[in-house]
Amino acid sequence: MTPDITPLVAGNWKMNGERDQLDQLALLARGVDADLADKVDVVVCPPATLLYVATTLSEDTALEVGAQDCHNESKGAHTGDISAEMIKDCMAEYCIVGHSERRTDHGESDYHVAGKAQACWRAGLVAIICIGETEAEYDAGSAEQVLKRQIMQSVPEGATEDDTIIAYEPVWAIGTGKTPSPEDIEEIHAFIREELATKFGGHGERMRILYGGSVKPTNASEILAVNNVDGALVGGASLKAADLLAICESYRHV
Ligand code: 13P
Question: In order of start, what are the domains of the chain with their CATH numbers?
Fold first, then answer.
């Protein structure tokens, strides 16, 4: 945690969830009561096909909705893509950009990611910009170098705590059940904080830094208590409302 920063827990459903999954979204919305919402911002990022119905279902609740990716342009001949403006039109408020699965599966470079973050700002969305080293980079001892480059190149100039959230997701921890130790998370988040403060001054000091990668109800309270961990980006465990709520509950009594 960081003093004076409201934490945020976001569930990334990835390419999971057809309409029947909306039952979980409704349960989640019901579970985020006023007391919990006071302690933590809770966001769910369903696939684009469910975005509009998700925002409709969560209207008048404390649950917020985000998308998982956007194109950098506002419209045009880009078959299959969706723009940040379209996401905003669905009444969503956040958009994940630069997830490692998109960097790998779709060859997205830091340059693409920065363009998408700017598109989010243009449309009035908060960009959740993902960074993180691969296993090979971790083993080679180059994690900090990779993160520094990603912060320099994927997070555009002018980012503030109001329009940008950083999600640190070590690629080797995603969907593997492996997580870095709390000590390692503390060290790397401190490094990210320092880099953000160097680049963005006070805005970098106030920007939320989420941890992502195999966060579950069983390890959440330990991870979320670490210095400079301002929330979590949760994949697999976000598909069940009870699990995502259990993760959020870590914040109820702090
Ligand atoms: P898991 O929580 O399934 O490891 O996924 C993390 C992630 O990639 C969230 O964006």
Answer: 8-15+41-237 (3.20.20.70)
